[in-house]
Amino acid sequence: MKLIEQFENSISENINCHLKLLEEYKNIEKSIDLVTKCIRKGGKILFCGNGGSAADAQHLAAEYLIRLRPKVNRHPLPALSLAQDTSTLTACGNDYSFEDIFVRPFEAIVKKNDILIAISTSGNSKNIFKVLKRAKEKNIKTIGFLGNDGGICRKFSDIKLVVPS
Questions:
Q1: Radius of gyration of the chain (CA)
Q2: d(Cα 103, Cα 132) in Å, to the nearest integer?
Q3: Pick from 14, 56, 71, 109: most CB atoms within 10 A?
Q4: How many Å is the maximal CA-CA distance in the chain?
Q5: Local confidence pLDDT in tens for the 165 residues of the chain
Q6: Phi, psi angle pair for 121, to nearest 5°
Q7: Are β-strands 45-49 and 115-120 bridged in parallel, bridged antiparallel, or unpaired?
Q8: Are 99 and 84 in contact (CB under 8 A)?
Q9: What is the C-alpha separation between 66 and 83, in angstroms, rounded?
Q10: 52, 125 contact by CB (below 8 A)
Q11: In the prediction, which pLDDT does 16 show?
Q12: pLDDT for res 109
């Protein structure tokens, strides 16, 4: 396959992915409503993800805590990443299991009216699945930012935002 054909295929896949996202508008709207209600009721947003998704979780939490736009000043909104720090992550991985690195801090800080936003590009990360399952047991609302077909995490996310790429 020529380089230009690879480029055309890549652009076509990207366009198809964006068209698929347009079909998710109802779930995007539901997510906005859920986050708004959470904040208005005094809850906080908890984020989690592995690898690059952990960086995304931390970035999203920072946007709530600091600000999204440079020219718009507002009060900080309560949000944090469950990938708190290397000491907590490595202690939990060593003393319990890597599968528990999100569920342990979740258990420690979650309260009524909080929500969990879990990010998994495969939808099958065991530590993400485990914290989503625990959230369901505690009646905490969840949003899954999931890749591929959503994997097992799809089943445990109240609102599923699935990107098939």
A1: 17
A2: 9
A3: 56
A4: 56
A5: 788 889 898 898 888 877 877 777 789 999 999 999 999 999 999 999 999 999 999 999 999 999 878 888 889 999 999 987 899 999 999 999 999 999 999 999 999 999 999 999 999 999 999 999 999 999 999 999 999 899 999 999 999 999 877
A6: -70, -25
A7: parallel
A8: no
A9: 18
A10: no
A11: 82
A12: 96
Q: How far apart are CA 120 and CA 143, in angstroms?
A: 11
Q: Which two tokens stand for residue 69?
A: 């736009």
DSSP 8-state secondary structure symbol assigned to residue 48: E
162 CB contacts (<8 Å, ≥6 apart)? 24, 123, 144, 146, 147, 148, 149, 150, 154
- Tell me the two tokens of residue 106: 């979740």
| Alpha-carbon gap, residue 154 to 133, rounded angstroms | 11
pTM of the model: 0.89
How far apart, in whole angstroms, are the C-alpha atoms of residue 125 and residue 4? 35
Q: Which of 163, 30, 143 is nearest to 79 (CA)?
A: 143
The closest alpha carbon to 40, from 29, 32, 30, belongs to 32
**CB contact at 8 A, 31 and 41:** no
What are the tokens at 86? 């290397």
Instruction: List helix spans (H) across 23-159.
Output: 25-40, 52-65, 86-95, 103-109, 126-137
